[in-house]
From TrEMBL, chain A:
An annotated GO BP: amino acid transport
Organism: Sulfitobacter marinus
Places the protein is found: Cell membrane
InterPro entries in UniProt: ABC_transp_permease (IPR001851), BCAA_transport_permease (IPR052157)
Membrane topology note: Multi-pass membrane protein
Annotated transmembrane regions: 16-37, 44-60, 66-85, 97-122, 142-163, 191-213, 219-237, 244-265, 277-296
Protein name: Amino acid/amide ABC transporter membrane protein 1, HAAT family
Record-stated family: Belongs to the binding-protein-dependent transport system permease family. LivHM subfamily.
GO cellular component, one term: plasma membrane
Signal peptide: none
Primary location: membrane
Gene Ontology terms, MF aspect: transmembrane transporter activity
Keywords: Amino-acid transport, Cell membrane, Membrane, Transmembrane, Transmembrane helix, Transport
Automatic annotation (TrEMBL), chain B:
Higher taxonomy: Bacteria, Pseudomonadati, Pseudomonadota, Alphaproteobacteria, Rhodobacterales
Name of the protein described by the UniProt record: Amino acid/amide ABC transporter substrate-binding protein, HAAT family
Any GO BP annotation: amino acid transport
Superkingdom assignment: Bacteria
Keywords noted in UniProt: Amino-acid transport, Signal, Transport
Leucine-binding protein domain segment(s): 26-354
Matching InterPro entries: BCAA_transport, Leu-bd, Peripla_BP_I
From TrEMBL, chain C:
Membrane topology note: Multi-pass membrane protein
Taxonomic superkingdom: Bacteria
MF-aspect GO terms: branched-chain amino acid transmembrane transporter activity
Protein name: Amino acid/amide ABC transporter membrane protein 2, HAAT family
One matching Pfam family: BPD_transp_2
Compartment list: Cell membrane
TrEMBL record, chain D:
A matching Pfam family: BCA_ABC_TP_C
ABC transporter domain sequence ranges: 6-247
SUPFAM superfamilies per the UniProt record, alphabetical: P-loop containing nucleoside triphosphate hydrolases (SSF52540)
PANTHER family, per the entry: ABC TRANSPORTER ATP-BINDING PROTEIN (PTHR45772:SF2), CONSERVED COMPONENT OF ABC TRANSPORTER FOR NATURAL AMINO ACIDS-RELATED (PTHR45772)
Record carries keyword Calcium: no
UniProt cross-references to InterPro entries, sorted A to Z: AAA+_ATPase, ABC_AA/LPS_Transport, ABC_transporter-like_ATP-bd, ABC_transporter-like_CS, BCA_ABC_TP_C, P-loop_NTPase
Alphabetized UniProt keyword annotations: ATP-binding, Nucleotide-binding, Transport
One GO term describing the cellular component: plasma membrane
SMART domains reported for this sequence: AAA
Protein name: Amino acid/amide ABC transporter ATP-binding protein 1, HAAT family
UniProt GO MF annotations: ATP binding; ATP hydrolysis activity
Top-level taxon: Bacteria
Amino acid sequence: MSMILLIEQVLNGLQFGVMLFLMAAGLTLIFGVMGLINLAHGSLYMVGAFAAAAVAGWTGSFALALVAALAAAAAAGALIELLVIRRLYDRDHLDQVLATFALILIFSEGTRWLFGSFPLFLDVPAALAGPIMLPGGILYPLYRLVIIGVGLLVAAGVFWLIAKTRIGIQIRAGEADREMIAALGIDISRLYTMVFALGAALAGLAGALVGAIQSVQVGMGEPVLILAFVVIVIGGIGSIKGALVGSILVGLTDTLGGVLLPPLFGTFMQASSATSVGSAVASMSIYILMVGVLLFKPSGLFGGK
Amino acid sequence: MKLRTLIAAASIAALGAGMAYADGGKVKVGMITTLSGGGAGLGIDVRDGFVLAAKGNENLELVIEDDQRKPDVAVQLTDKLIQSEKVDVLTGIIWSNLAMAVVPAATAQGKFYLSPNAGPSALAGKGCSPLYFNVAWQNDAFYEAGGLWASENGIEKVFLMAPNYPAGTDGMTGFKRTFKGEVVGEVYTKLGQTDYAAEIAQIRASDADTVYFFLPGGMGISFMKQFAGSGVDKNVMGPAFSFDQGILGAIGDAALGVKNTSHWSKDIDNAANKKFVADFQAEYGRLPSLYAAQGYDTALLLQSAMGKADVADAAAFQAALEEADFASVRGDFAFAPNHHPIQDIYMREVIKEGDVVTNKIVGVASSDHQDVYGADCKM
Amino acid sequence: MTRETLLNIVLFAILPATALVAFALDEPFIITLATKAAILALAGVGLNIALGLGGLVSLGHAAFFGLGGYAMGILASHAQSYTPLMETPFLIEGTKSMLVIWGVAIVTSALAALAIGALSLRTTGVYFIMITLAFGQMLYYFAISWPAYGGEDGLSIYVRNEFPGLNTLDPIQFFAIAFGILAIVLFGAGRLAKARFGLALSAARQNAERVETVGLTPFRLRLVAFVISGAVTGLAGALFADLNRFVSPTMFSWHTSGEIMVFVILGGVGRLFGPVAGAALYILLEHTLGGLSEFWHVYLGLLLLLVVLFARGGLIGTIAGREVAHD
Amino acid sequence: MTDPLLKLSHLNKSFGALKATDDVSLTLMPGEIHALIGPNGAGKSTLIKQIAGGLRSDSGTVEFAGRDVTALGTVPRARAGLGRTFQISSLAMEYTVLQNTVLGALGHDGGVMRFFRPVMKDRRLVDRGMAALERVGLTDQAAKRTADLSHGQRRLLEVAVALTLEPKVFLMDEPMAGLGASGSKRLTGFLDALRVQAPILLVEHDMDAVFALADRISVLVYGRVIATGTADEIKRDPTVREAYLGAEDAA
């Protein structure tokens, strides 16, 4: 395999990882602050993508579509937080898993009811379409580079938010000790709604960005959700740094595993069976990675407790 | 999910067949298809096509059930339709894996099964049954035709891609069976994968002149959008499944110029097809897909047999079905001895008609195409 | 007699009563539904041993359900095609005998549970939920991409497997088999909960430190519970495959794990008959709501949400009230 | 001279910069009650965890009945005969009171991998559980849910569970807390008699009980044992008065 191809694949893995981070950041924040497992996070990703596709269809503007995705996902997040999620904070994980599993069913079929069963159209804006030439003669899609840029920017924003702002201080206080923030005179329920809406908005943004190069359809959030869970478990639940490291790790493992494993198996197997066995192992690779990490660090790479 | 559609007011002329019914001859049809969850669009089209063709036939009673694309649900619905509803004929399954579960269960209980979409190789060969008729295609047909067309049209080096599951690997095997050129790369992706950046990079790095792929549903949409954005300059070919009307709307301009093989296209020039396309648009307000065409043909076939024999007489009804005496929207249509179609497979190209992205026939890829599994079929 | 005991008797009687009425009315499909409920309840009873007694929230029980299913599918498909499963180092033939298939399903899923449990039980809380989910997904992707046994297409078995003295293709007789097993397992699970093992396991769920202090190892208790739980769910998987005469990777999907968990929750966590109530209710809903709307999952979701939020303790908890500690 | 049943030698434990246990050496002789006292935050709970096996020591050794158990965890130490009660009641709250003591009896008996016979019909275990309840005076509460017990009753149940283990050594973390005057007086009498069965390492805030019961007292301040001796010696010890009792008098 040529160096150029390898670099391109690493970029692909990075882009995938950055996208996962947008999902995982919300999940891990919500878990860290509120102690909640939210299986419905993938539905918020889907809400973002559908809102973006709908608005792009009406107005033709990708920028407006992104704004709509953020707004719709944040609103949907705030709504379910107020109606359902806040009743789950002091429940055990089992109730949380079940209730948010129920939310997935409602969101998926509700979206299908609203938008029909066919995938929607959402395209990359003309200005970002097509490839550009990178140093070293690598031809790479501009839009994917933009995704990497936006993702890293958002990551920096989230780190800044947590480290430097008032709400960040409150979030960190909440992670350390939930009773503490009440003692500090912070309106907990407002903080929770805000954190939840923030996580939802990040998921919605991811859905809209990815929707432009993938298929906007019902159920699109579930595979991403499971990967995002793998990410935060690897990184250590509640840790933003862990989410970032985990995302990149999973993105690279998944991309490079799919590329490198089949030829690797080809070195000691028949070509035809190597392709399918290699692909089979590649599709299991991130789960193997996760199990491996948990065996040596049962609470993830950056897990505190 | 249960829609009991009892259709009244027969109008034989409306069927364009112009024949008289045999006396009595009522038939109860059970349709099990995918109406909810992922892939529901395909089942809805098959249902709508079937209902359109059967409209006005009071001898045909239709019971529709939703399999949710789950094999276990499909098998249970089969039992239900046979045991409780006492249907005579089953139809509707979209997916090969569900067909593999339902068809043996139906024929083992002595019921006819007309497949409006899936055609797994096992059911065309060793597992064939006198009661099983495939009105769509054997799974390999579009791929074999694609390989033939590519060989005859100066394509030398292809890169193959499909999901790593049986329909995917079988399809690529079908292509390789008829393709004379060189396969320079072959990638099997994870089922349900949505990001194809890694594969596109491999395609770019290869010296293939053409990418031939099969990625059904959302996978194909994702791939095409990403491929168009990558600036890789290679021909794209595939079976019709990734370029059907329901999907083209979501891909948009990115699909323009793609060649795909199909047994049907809305511009096939015959009276039955013109009527079908016009009626379908009038009834449902959207362009028909090939799934709708298959549903429509299935109902036409069934009604042609109902005109000739009583379903209670299985041998006679089977013989009537074998004649395939109906005006298919595909033009010429006949059954091979293994009850799978002998039909022309066309090459289509994705074009833009006004604002609508759609398909246009550019030639015949394989005329009177027939599958290779019939030799194993002993019935 | 407590209200729960009375309720349990009613619940226990519902399935065979439904099947018998359907038999009298010649409605074989209703019998098939009752059979499905009995088998899914069995899977739930399996999960409930880990979840209810042991407090182990496993989101990967589809792994065992699927393994049981594939034990049936692989053995029966080899018997169907008269090809041996393995020739070297010694010959293993396929089989159509339910008893042998059940044995293989139980042993396979127990061994898998031993391996998965030994690794997963090193973690707790969310990590445990997620690592079990990951193991389930691993098997799911493996089953899809492994071509030997049908991959995504799954395996079709044309005729149901054999049970001595019974015609298994007759719905009512197959129901009798499934319900018989459910009854035996319910009895066993009830005894287990009250036996030494159950006392210690349940104590480990309530307070692991306490159990350690009296000199017992929570890890060992949980691992054994996980193995028993996996084996029961695997047996249910084999029966489910026989009900459908078909297996596919769907049995391994995380939705299956979620659904088994839904049976347990709908009925009531930790209640012996909870999964029976939950599975019966689920099947009932699937067929009544399914008849009302294409979008019945919305209603199922709403109902599930209401149960979790407002009817804690599930169906049995709502009707029978707080559980009294067993004597 | 007889050998000590429990012997701590130069135990250390730090949490970051904080030295929670600082070179602690202690012994517990057969038949004695050895009380461990000290102000809040002196490191008593940390030390108890190190002895019981829930917390690994940075250095030093724990010997139990002549055997080095430093490397062992909670379970093997419990099986070796260390009967511990918790400062904050640690019981199976959904169970009845009797079930909690039967659990203890089961732990002592071993043989937990039995899946069929109802444990509450196992005469031997139930009798042992009832006997323990009788000794602490909880017989009437046997069928009650543990969660419904008062705080004081839970403390007694803690002791009862420890009794079912028939340990060689008792490790009791504030058993008097929340008992009230008459309750602690009764428990004091009970512990007084218990030392014949097995010696007790007693962490306690109730000074009346400590001075009434303890054969020896060790004073822990900032993780260090600043003095060990009889009640009279401790009362007279100037460093103790300054570091501990003085502080209490002032308060």
